[in-house]
Amino acid sequence: MVPPHDAELITRWQRGDEAAFEQLVRRWQQPMARFLFRLTGCAEAVHDLCQEVFLRLYAARASYRDNGNFSGWLYRVALNVARDAARRRRRFPVSLASGEPVDPAAPAEAICQRRELTRLVAEAVAELPEPLRVVLALRHDEGLSFEEIARLTGSPASTLKSRFAAALRELRTRLARHGYGPEEMSE
Amino acid sequence: MNCTEARNDLIDLVVGTLPAERRQHLETHLLACPCCRAERDSLQEATALLQAAPAPAVQIDVAALYREAARREQKRLRRWRRTALACGTALAALLALTIGLNLEVRLERHQFVLRWGAPPPPDEPAAPTEVRVPPPREQPVTAEEMERRLGRLHELVQGLAASVQSLELEQRQELGRLRAGLQALRQQAVLHQEMTGKDVDALYVDRFLDKKRSEP
Predict the structure, then answer these.
(1) Which of the pair, B194 or B39, is modelled with greater confidence?
(2) DSSP-assigned states of every residue in B35-91
(3) In chain B, what residues touch A22 (CB-CB under 8 Å)?
(4) DSSP A91
(5) What is the per-residue pLDDT across B164-204, written as a single tens digit (0 to 9) for each?
(6) pLDDT at position B150, please?
(7) What are the chain B neighbours of A180 within 8 Å (beta carbons)?
């Protein structure tokens, strides 16, 4: 069975079908979590920020008008939520707890190394300028094309491409300062 | 393919959207260009690092979401009610003040007027102030000063009398000249009258007496 489109779910929800809203939440909760995690670099705050995104969606029930770009609208809401959070706290403290489920069979040292790497990557991404963070999250994590990101952010696709490359280079440089290179990755 | 084109294609290569034909050209260039190769490795390492740090899994509790939405809606309504109540109270207080104190708020040019109670009576025109000129203060005059002033006054009177005498003399002389002139005119008139009488007599004799004598 083909899953219903976002537009169809929204129409059903606006007509009073609460199950359609729940389906939207389930569909978009993880993409929102990834996006917000890249923007904020704080694993512990991601859940609350995700909830805020869906609360704003819920509040827009009557006013939302679908134009075939629900994902773009939701990412913009998430971006605003992340900006509001950044204003409240100038910078989120990076949590050591990544929220990942721990494999009990894995050696303790490997778990620690993985957590440390997660922390450093999250910290390095969070320190990037916001335009670089946004394009990095949307292209790398969400798989949006540069043209789709251009429609979402209003910047030209060529600019976004350059920003993406700059973000990766900057990230690589920052992590290399902490001793993370290809050798550590292959371990 | 030059390095600029290669750098542009490297992004597409890393994200996996580079077409096969361009990929072939890029790989050929990378074999010959260590700089672009290093750039590719750097981008791929960064991508791998990002994949090594995944976002935490999130499970939104939709029921809690509904509760939170309801709580916010109630909070928003309470805030609205409080704001409306505060505005209404302030409005009522202002109205009571306006009526009770006969409050008048007026914005005029260069001034903001806030007045309560009955308006003040119009200002009466101010009475003209009498300017009292203080009497000249008489200072005591010394005897020498008095003497000097009298001397000056005497000189003035003398000068005035001399001037009057001079004028009278001039008038008398003028009057004398006028009398002499008048006398001369009288004498000329008498003389002229006598001569005219003689001329009339001679004419009469010549016209009438001489004619009688010649008649037989």
Answers:
(1) B194
(2) HHHHHHHHHHHHHHHHHHSPPPP----HHHHHHHHHHHHHHHHHHHHHHHHHHHHHH
(3) 62
(4) S
(5) 999 999 999 999 999 999 999 999 999 999 999 999 988 88
(6) 93
(7) 49
Quick check: A94 pLDDT over 50?
no
Average pLDDT over residues B35-48: 85
Task: Measure A93 CA to nearest chain B CA, in Å.
Answer: 15
Q: Where are the domains of chain B?
A: 3-52, 68-99, 166-216
Q: How would you classify residue A143: left for phi > 0, otherwise alpha for psi between -120 and 50, otherwise beta?
A: left
A51 vs B52: CB contact, 8 Å cut-off? no
* Calpha distance A131→A129 (Å, rounded): 6
Interface confidence, given as ipTM, is 0.72
- Domains annotated on chain A, with CATH: 6-101+109-179 (1.10.1740.10)
Q: Mean per-residue pLDDT for B199-216?
A: 79
Residue B156: alpha-carbon gap to chain centroid = 59
Asked whether the beta carbons of residue B49 and residue A54 sit closer than 8 angstroms, the reply is: no
Q: How far is A155 from chain B (nearest CA, A)?
A: 17
Residue A152 binned pLDDT confidence (cut-offs 50, 70, 90) = confident
Q: Which residues contact A117 (CB under 8 A, 6 or more apart)?
A: A180, A184, B49, B52, B53
| Res A102 pLDDT > 60 | no
* Of A42, A21, A47, A44, the residue nearest A32 (C-alpha): A47
CA A65 – CA A97 distance, rounded (Å): 39
B60: left (phi over 0), alpha (psi -120 to 50) or beta: beta
The yes-or-no verdict on residue A187 having pLDDT over 50 is no
Contact residues on chain B for A34, CB-CB shorter than 8 A: 54-55
* Distance between B72 CA and the closest CA of chain A, angstroms: 10
CB spacing of B69 vs A55 below 8 angstroms: yes
